[in-house]
Amino acid sequence: MSNLIYLDNAATAFPKPPVVIDAMSDFYREYGVNPGRSGYDLAVEAGLMLDGARRLLDRFFNNPARDHDRVCFALNASAALNMIIQGLCRPGDHVVSTMLEHNSVLRPLYEMERAGVITHDLVAFDGQGFVDPQDIARAIKPHTRLVIVNHGSNVLGTIQDIAAIGAVCREKGVLFAVDTAQTAGVVPIDMAACHVDVLAFTGHKSLMGPTGTGGMVVGPDVPLRATRWGGTGVESAVRTHLDYFPYIGEVGTANTVGIAGLKRGVEWVLEQGLDKIRAHEMALAAQLIEGLRGIPGVTLYCADSNQRHLPVVCANVAGFESPQTGELLDVEHNVATRVGLHCAPLAHVGIGTTPKGTVRFSLGPFNTAAHVEAAIAGMQDIAAMRRPSTARG
User: Fold this and answer.
1) Helix (H) or strand (E) holding 217
2) Of 254, 271, 288, which residue constitutes the final position of a domain?
3) Distance, CA of 237 to CA of 260 (rounded, Å)
4) Based on the domain organization, do 366 and 257 belong to the same domain?
5) What whole-number distance in Å separates Cα of residue 348 and Cα of residue 100?
6) Is 227 buried (19+), middle (13-18) or exposed (0-12) by CB count in 10 A?
7) Residues 164-176 pLDDT 10s
8) Which residues lie across from 199 on neighbouring strands?
9) Cβ atoms within 10 A of the Cβ of 178, count?
10) Which pTM value belongs to this model?
C-alpha cells in the first residue's frame, strides 16, 4: 500500500494532512461529548468547536447573510443537495439544471418529477465542457423557482461561470444553488459576488476533512424548509421542528469528531493558500495531459485547455473498456484511478462515452511529478498492448 500512486482525489482526497488526523484524535481525547445538550464544561467546549467551524465556513464562502448559524452540517454534499432541492421546491415549480450534474442532483430532480411535484429541464454543455449562461437564461420559465448548477465537473474538470449564471438568476428573480463538491478548497468561491443563494459543500475532498462531513451554506432571505425532523437539543417541548437556523438543516447529534477534522482541514487549506495548492495541482494536470496526448490510441476528453479547469483528466485507450484500463493500471502499475460513469451519466452521454465511461485521473496536493510520470508510463504500456486489428482501426 505504501507504494500506491493515488490519483483518485476527485472521489476523496488522500492522504489527509496529519494535522487533520491529530485534530480529530485530540477532540475525542479532550472533549468528545455531545454539544448543545448540557451546560457542563466539556459540552460547552464541544459546542464552541462547532460554532467555530460554522464561523470559518461562513467566511470561507463569503456568505452575504453574515450569519454563521446558516451553515448547516450534513453527512456530505449529496445530503445537502437533497435538503436544498426538496426544501426549496413547491408543487408546480420548475427547476433548471445541466447535463453535467452528479446524480446527487439528477436523482432528486427525477424523483420529484416522478412524484408529480416539479418539472425540470437540463441545459447541454458545449464541446469543451462548458455551459453557456445564456442557455440557462433561455431555459428559465415563468414558474421556474430554482437553478442548480455543478460548479466543477467531476468528469470533465470544467469550471462553470457561476458569476454569470448568478447574474442571470438575480435578474430573473430565480433562486440559485451551486454544488461545490469538486471546487471548494480548489478555487475561491464568493457567494456574495456570484449571487449564490445557497451552496452545498463536502468535507472529504479538497477541504481535506474526513468522510461523513459536508453541508450547506444558506444566504439571506432564502425560504428553505426543513425536510427532516427530530431532536435539536433545545426547545424540546415544541411539537414541530424548529424553523430557524441551523436547526432547519440539522437534526440529531452532529458528527462532531468529523467536523473537528473538517475545521482543521479548511484551516490547513488556508494556511497553504488556495493559489499555491491550485498551481501545484494544475501543473501536474498539464504534465499528465501533455504525456497522455502523445500516446497513440489514447483519447482525452475536454482537455484542450487548462483555463477554468480542475486537475481532473479523463481518457480512454482504444481497444480497452475503461474498467479494463483501470484494472491494468492498478494491478500492473500500482496506479489508482476511477473508472466508469462517475455518478454523472449525462456528462458521458454528452461526450459519447456511455455505457462504460472513462478512466479518470484526479490530482491532489500530495501528488508529485513522479506520480504523473508513472501514470503516463502505465498508459503507454496499455496502449502498446492493443491488438493489431484494433490499432489499424
Assistant:
1) strand 214-218
2) 271
3) 30
4) no
5) 9
6) middle
7) 999 999 999 999 9
8) 178, 217
9) 29
10) 0.95
